[in-house]
Amino acid sequence: MPQDPMTQAPGDDPGRQALAACLPEFYAAVRDFPDLRVEPGLDDGAIAALETRLDFRLPAGLRRLLRHCAAISMNGLSLRAREFGPIVMPGSEALVIGELYLHNPGDRLLMLPNDESVYYLEQRNGAITKLADTVEGFFNQTLPRHLYG
Description:
The chain is α+β, with helices and mostly antiparallel strands. 34% of the residues lie in helices and 28% in strands. The chain is built from 5 helices and 8 strands. Strands 1, 2, 3, 4, 5, 6, 7 and 8 form an 8-stranded antiparallel β-sheet that branches. Strand 5 (92-100) and strand 6 form a beta hairpin. It is globular, with a radius of gyration of 15 Å.
């Protein structure tokens, strides 16, 4: 009988194993968060289908992450490939890759075409702030600072 994912030990959880392999520094910082949920990654065909559906070429760092983890959620963060969506910004297209509650619930994480950076969009005023130069930097440096102050 399979274990309930809510009570699985991290070593038995394929999503957590994938996160630990892909982003070991981040995983070491958050592995004990009780609400950490991770889904295993997508294959190259599923990533290509996602790009076709979105009509958006995913940055290389995001593609690498998605190969390991299709979804990561915890403590105000929600990044799920199935929920990615395009958004038209003044002067540019962008891709909403998730939600992050830094200042307000429902604020968004964005990526721009041909840009590896991760941006933060405040819903209430439209302010956009660059959080990190790369997806890896966002998870390994930026996010832990916000989680632990």
